[in-house]
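User: quick one, sequence for these tokens?
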């Protein structure tokens, strides 16, 4: 009888504890978020809680906002101060779910004047920026949006059209409410691409003009400089400008890259090339553009084929391979999405076989497999000695924080049974000549037969509008370096340490890439990556980078990334969408502009 009473008492205590825990996500519905025109990389999926969508703090970067809160003391209902890209900040109350702060997206989006769309059938929340105004005086086109968006300019020579595309922007069906101030006789139109997520402004030019996007790739104040507009089309700018209101322009009426008919996807197959590689082959009736994206938890690699349709419904394919277990193809709006269910992190690339066939190759990264213990890893603290690197707002020098983080990584790797080697253990460079110095750092990896090589840096850009976040690079189309970059990057972002500014190839910075990665990857065949741990001229990032507590957390995340690379396992990461490299030339994938990047030539 006494045992029964004890048992009932334990059950009662357990029930009380369970009911008192607001941090458990059980029972909440997972939600898909589309912001910035795409599904953002978030280490935890948004949740629908009492009719409101909540997301983790890194989701704020999708609408160009930051935040301030006490990260060391988390509680349900905790105040989080939202910091928009422009305008006054404002507080919101967060929920504590599974030990992590989550914030109400609709409330924040409404304060940022975002367009909010909720699809109950698919449980999808779509956030789009709005057009505040459009202004053109013949020499500059200016478009202001409610919060920052990624923009791209296209010149369509055949139609003499200057096209400004803005990802994740809503263009209303009626333009009467948009102030379009046109000081010229050039017609201005607006429209939406077929993806429903990209707004565009089109100028029907009378002749060929020169243009340049002079604003940052992601901003709420987009500026395009225009040269060569003929005088008859320049109005008297001293006269009051009158709004130009036109019809909404559908995507296909001004699409320079594709014809009116979509690409037909006729066959999707796979071929095994040993246990370390498998190819997925997509055959179409015409050339297609593509984007890739990678999510983990679950591990999935997506190939989105633009402006395409399935020739016929395709059944899911089960695959018996160490790298993938299944292939699924589905129509997603005006695109076709091919989804691969992964068994672990992979290196991947897209190439063409003839004009109409794409091959998505997956490989097991070099030296991957087996435990982290026993591996040899070379850590490179960037700069040193007279090469101070970037300078912080407070005068702090990058070389010092690089060494502090690298030293902590080395200590943790030693504890994990890894042979960890630093390229420099003090405040000195390896050589006075920059090119020699960069080669010697990579040569250290070759000399010690390293399994992987990681270079640690922090970033800086000119002016006072530095972005905040983490960028990670690999060389060219080195698939193993690419996998290493994803693993390390994902663990840092997963830990909530810095906003995600993506993983991408170093050839997006310089044609030949970054010297230290080029030497490690090409000359010595060592999988290599370079992390840029925040911006020293961004006040929030600076405070973190110079903090010993933050340096330790970065080191722990880096070591976790190494473990992911060698052993596999679940995490979260967003792939880059830069074009593949085929025979040293960029293939015709979609290359998205992203902010930031190292500003030290030759690094």
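Assistant:
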């Amino acid at each position: 009888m006494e045992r029964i009473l004890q048992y009932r008492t334990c059950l009662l205590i357990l029930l009380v504890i369970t009911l008192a825990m607001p941090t458990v996500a059980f029972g909440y519905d997972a939600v898909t978020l589309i912001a910035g025109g795409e599904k953002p990389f978030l280490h935890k999926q948004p949740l629908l809680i009492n009719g409101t969508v909540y997301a983790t703090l890194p989701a704020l970067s999708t609408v160009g906002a930051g935040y301030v809160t006490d990260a060391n003391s988390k509680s349900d209902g905790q105040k989080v101060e939202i910091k928009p890209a422009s305008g006054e900040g404002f507080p919101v109350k967060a929920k504590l779910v599974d030990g992590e702060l989550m914030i109400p997206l609709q409330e924040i989006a409404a304060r940022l004047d975002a367009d909010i769309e909720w699809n109950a059938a698919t449980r999808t929340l779509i956030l789009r920026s709005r057009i505040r105004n459009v202004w053109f005086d013949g020499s500059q086109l200016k478009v202001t949006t409610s919060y920052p968006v990624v923009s791209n300019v296209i010149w369509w020579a055949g139609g003499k059209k200057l096209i400004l595309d803005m990802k994740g922007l809503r263009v209303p069906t009626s333009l009467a409410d948009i102030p379009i101030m046109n000081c010229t006789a050039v017609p201005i139109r607006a429209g939406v691409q077929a993806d429903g997520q990209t707004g565009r402004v089109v100028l029907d030019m009378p002749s060929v003009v020169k243009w340049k996007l002079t604003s940052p790739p992601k901003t709420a104040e987009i500026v395009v400089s225009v040269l060569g507009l003929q005088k008859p089309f320049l109005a008297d700018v001293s006269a009051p400008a009158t709004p130009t209101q036109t019809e909404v322009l559908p995507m296909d009426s001004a699409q320079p890259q594709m014809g009116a008919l979509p690409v037909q996807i006729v066959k999707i197959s796979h071929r095994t090339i040993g246990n370390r590689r498998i190819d997925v082959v997509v055959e179409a009736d015409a050339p297609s553009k593509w984007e890739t994206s990678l999510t983990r938890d679950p591990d999935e690699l997506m190939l989105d084929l633009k402006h395409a349709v399935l020739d016929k419904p395709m059944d899911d394919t089960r695959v018996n391979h160490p790298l993938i277990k299944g292939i699924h193809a589905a129509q997603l709006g005006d695109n076709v999405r091919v989804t691969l269910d992964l068994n672990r992190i992979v290196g991947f690339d897209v190439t063409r076989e003839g004009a109409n066939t794409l091959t998505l190759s997956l490989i097991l990264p070099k030296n991957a497999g087996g435990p982290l213990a026993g591996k040899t890893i070379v850590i490179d603290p960037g700069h040193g000695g007279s090469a101070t690197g970037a300078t912080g707002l407070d005068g702090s020098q990058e070389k010092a924080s690089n060494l502090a983080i690298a030293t902590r990584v080395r200590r943790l790797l030693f504890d994990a049974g890894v042979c960890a080697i630093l390229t420099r253990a003090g405040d000195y460079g390896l050589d006075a000549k920059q090119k020699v110095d960069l080669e010697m750092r990579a040569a250290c990896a070759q000399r010690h037969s390293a399994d992987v090589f990681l270079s640690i840096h922090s970033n800086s850009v000119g002016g006072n509008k530095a972005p905040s976040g983490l960028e990670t690079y690999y060389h060219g189309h080195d698939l193993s370096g690419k996998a290493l970059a994803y693993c390390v990057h994902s663990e840092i972002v997963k830990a909530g340490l810095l906003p995600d500014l993506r993983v991408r190839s170093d050839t997006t910075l310089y044609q030949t890439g970054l010297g230290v990665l080029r030497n490690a990857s090409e000359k010595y065949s060592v999988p290599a990556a370079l992390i840029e741990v925040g911006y020293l001229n961004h006040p929030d990032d600076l405070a973190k980078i110079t903090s010993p507590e933050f340096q330790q957390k970065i080191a722990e995340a880096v070591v976790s990334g190494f473990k992911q690379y060698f052993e596999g396992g679940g995490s979260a990461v967003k792939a880059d969408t830069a074009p593949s490299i085929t025979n040293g030339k960029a293939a015709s994938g979609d290359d998205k502009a992203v902010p930031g990047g190292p500003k030290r030539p030759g690094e």
